[in-house]
Amino acid sequence: MIAKTMSSRKRNKKIAGLCARYFFLVLFCLFFLFPFVYLVSKGFFANSEPLIPIKLFPSFLSIDGYRYVFSLSVLRYFKNTVIVIVSNCILIPLSSSLCAFGFSKIKWQGREFFFGVVLATMMLPAMAIQVPLYIMYTRINWIGTLWPLIVPAAFGGGAFNIFLLRQFMKNVPNDILNAAKIDGATLIRIFFQLTIPLCMPIIIFIMVTTFFGCWNDFMGPIMFLGINDKNYTLAVAIYLNFVKSSTVYIHENANMAIGTLMIVPPIILFFIFQKQLLSGLNLGAIKG
């Protein structure tokens, strides 16, 4: 009887602890979700809706803010952003995986030294190379075009991505690659038909993080796109039309609407690929 009472008390304590834990988790969740709920809700306010008193939900649903946003050629800016993102999501994983394959599966003199040089480039501040790049792109007449945001992705894909892929590829069994060589497979075939499929988890992780980086990139487009507004990406267009603009009064609902349009695609992508995002770095670390 005493043992049964003790087990009942333990069970009640455990249930109470779980209830308290989930209660505080729900509170934290509501606290962090409130800005997003306010952002989405404010985007459906009408232009005539008064700012004071502050309300969380509109008196009636209106698309005045979204109508104003789409009157500013947002679809054109979105198309430019998609071009940059798709190009980078293809070129960065491809070029970085080629470099990682050379550093992990091909033996050549000085391999470790040059890999160390690649890693050392991670210590260079991004702003330290902006001026030389700007001068170079000016001389080849790329300023005002999308080429400065696309072409560099084909040359290595970044030291960090090379490091992640190299760590992952080092765990790919050499016996599989040697068997393919015995069967007459070339290095290119081994790379595309054997190595790439085995490295898809980390490649998907790199593609998703590349999407986030390109979607939120502001410094690159604002420097290299110049005054040619037909090639602006969304980040630059939003800054010039909604933040810097002082000649036209922009209703708060329009600001919230464009903020919603900017934040929704990354959220959707995160929920689709959250498993790869959360496990990608661990895979790269453990496999090495």
Explain what this protein looks like in three dimensions.
By secondary structure, this protein is mostly helical. It folds into two domains: 2-64, no CATH class; 73-287, MetI-like (MetI-like fold), CATH 1.10.3720. Helix content is 71%, strand content 0%. It is built from 13 helices and no strands. It has helices spanning 2-42, 64-70, 74-104, 111-120, 130-139, 147-150, 159-169, 174-182, 187-198, 200-216, 219-224, 234-243, 252-287. Helix 1 crosses helix 13 (252-287), helix 2 crosses helix 13 and helix 10 (200-216) packs antiparallel against helix 13 (252-287). The N and C termini lie far apart (55 Å). Residues 284-288 have low confidence and may be disordered.
How is this fold's topology laid out?
Elements: H1 2-42, H2 64-70, H3 74-104, H4 111-120, H5 130-139, H6 147-150, H7 159-169, H8 174-182, H9 187-198, H10 200-216, H11 219-224, H12 234-243, H13 252-287
Helix pairs in contact: 1-13, 2-13, 3-7, 3-10, 7-13, 8-9, 10-13
N→C terminal distance:
55 Å
| Strand runs, count | 0
| Rg on CA atoms, Å | 26 Å
Helix percentage range: over 70%
Q: What fraction of the residues are assigned to beta strands by DSSP?
A: under 5%
Number of continuous helical runs: 13
CATH class of the largest domain: Mainly Alpha
Structural class: mainly alpha
Assembly form of the protein: single chain
**Would you give the CATH topology of the largest domain?**
MetI-like fold
Strand/helix succession: HHHHHHHHHHHHH
Unreliable parts: 284-288
Give the biggest beta sheet: none
CATH architecture of the largest domain: Orthogonal Bundle
How many domains, in number, for the residues? 2
Per CATH, the superfamily of the largest domain is MetI-like
Mean pLDDT: 85
Large-scale geometry: flat
